[in-house]
Amino acid sequence: MSRTVEKVLSIISAIFTAVGVILSFASLALFNYVKSEPMFRLDFDSEMLAYDPTLTPMELDSIYSVIALAGGFIWLIIISLIVSFILTIIGIVSIWKNKNPKLAGIMFIIAGLTAGILSLTSILLYISGILCFTKKIPLTQESQFVDDKHDGTMRPL
Description:
The chain is an all-alpha fold. The protein has helices at about 5-35, 40-50, 55-95, 100-115, 120-135, 140-145. The longest helix has about 40 residues, at about 55-95. The protein starts with a helix and ends in a 12-residue tail after the last helix. The mean pLDDT is about 85.
């Protein structure tokens, strides 16, 4: 049985996930650079004080703690995308020669959940996982007429 649709959808989603991991690492590097740059902090403080002169240094520190929390959130996104990528690769390997389509379907659905509930990548993985479960091996013409009790020839009516 040909599983071309599942293969194509899972490969596309693996590529999207890999691009997402790379972009997440790039955004984390940019975020950490901006956060550690002293000139950025001075400019940010002056802009915030120009916008609202009643800000206190404690309020500015709370803003910086929220920015630090956002860095942790980026790490959470990176880890979930890496887990999704690994599960997608496991699913692709298990479906490649039609070895274990049920395992592939489970891996694709779990990878879709870890890639983001409603992202394009997860939707492709959900479709691929559902196809792994719903496609059945078609009956061949030979298997419809074979009688196990006899020599395999058709019997008369």
